[in-house]
Amino acid sequence: MFASITEKISNVFKNLRGLGKISEKNVTDALEEIRTSLLSADVNREAADEFINKVHKSAIGQKVLSKILPEQQIVKIICDELVELFGGNQEIEKYTAKPLKILLAGLHGSGKTTTAGKLALLLKDSGYSPLLVACDIYRPAAIDQLKMVADSISVACYAELHSKNVSKIVKHGLQYAEDNNFDAIIFDTAGRLHIDKQLIEEIKDIKKIASPNEVFLVADAALGQESVNIAKTFHDALSLSGIILTKLDGDARGGAALSMKYVTGVPIKFIGTGERPADFSAFHPKRMANRILGMGDVVSFVEKAQQHVDKQEQEKLSKKIKKAEFDLNDFLISIQQIKKMGSMSMLIGMIPGMSKTSMPDSDGKKMRMMEAIIQSMTIQERAKPSIIDSWRRTRIAKGAGVELKDVNALLKQFFQMQKMMKSFKGEKGIKKMQAFASQFNMHIGK
Ligand SMILES: Nc1nc2c(ncn2[C@@H]2O[C@H](COP(=O)(O)OP(=O)(O)OP(=O)(O)O)[C@@H](O)[C@H]2O)c(=O)[nH]1
Ligand SMILES: [Mg+2]
Q: Domains of the chain by range and CATH?
């Protein structure tokens, strides 16, 4: 996802960096290149043009172009504008309404049924008692699929096997929820082509009867230019309250994500990053912008880690970070923790300094290799990585059955990570770390 944009933008940055002094013409040329990469990633033309114009204006507005415009400054401007394009500082949804009713609409195969399960799991984890209501009476096996999804996360499902009346199913579902104290009701609807008037009318009816708190369009991130029309059509019919982008783990070019919000004004609220119920999270414009610019996404990474990582290991690790004692043993633990989390390629993109291109596999093969390399080191080497000279590197490579360059790459990554950890050292650093950690309710003591 976004790999091509990220790659092109980072090349543009690299070229700027090589220039020393940066003129207005350099900036204009760089932006033109970025514009082309946005268009070839299927970003809507209007959105791309407005984005480039804003960045250009902002760069010139800073009155630095006549002198030197540091590359970082341009990166920052681009990043800020990307955040805007994605929805600015939108609030992260914290649901409290009871009952909470959510209607899911979208094209065939966009991920509605899967997303129904993901949402249910998220709401269940935040204290709701969810009920999935099966409103897809057209596709054979749609009901069974929803039931399986519900079973896999131990939530309830309401379905009527032989009914052909969706309005009744919705009414009965609501009654069933009330009678059984379910307070988050998610309606999974039939997939449709946006031109299908009959299905659009049907979902409008469902909306009228259910009066949902949220009406989400579930959209595949791989949609190209047509994503804009799809979003518009659904928005006209249903007054959407949000968009859920699915399959961000795939190799979609990402244009849909950048354009749908721009054209409809409807915020992207959640993203799906895999087939499993846990592969789902709230959408953060800032993090997405950072990820596109290849700057990693420490916050999302830590948050994800927070959900999965062993608490004790985490405490040990945070103590080490505090003392800047992070060594290869800890690196090994973090690799093993990352492996547990799944959705590798998605997570890799979140680690600073590691782009998806540097770790293209999504099955953890590279992780296993990294583990093997560290496991081929002696206890002293792991505790004091600075002693690993070229002779030791060759021996480690042999022991792990890998090439020397793999060992070098791992050590480079490790030293980068250690450097980042060190920036948290000292009184000032501890404050920085605490502020950083408090964002995810993670406590780091004095
Ligand atoms: N990789 C990946 N696959 C996904 C994601 N979300 C859904 N899928 C897959 O996409 C396919 C279609 O998902 P469904 O949930 O059945 O889609 P739907 O919109 O309910 O489809 P219809 O009911 O036929 O309209 C399934 O194979 C899912 O496993 C995601 O975020 N990532
Ligand atoms: Mg479905």
A: 3-86 (1.20.120.140), 100-292 (3.40.50.300), 298-438 (1.10.260.30)
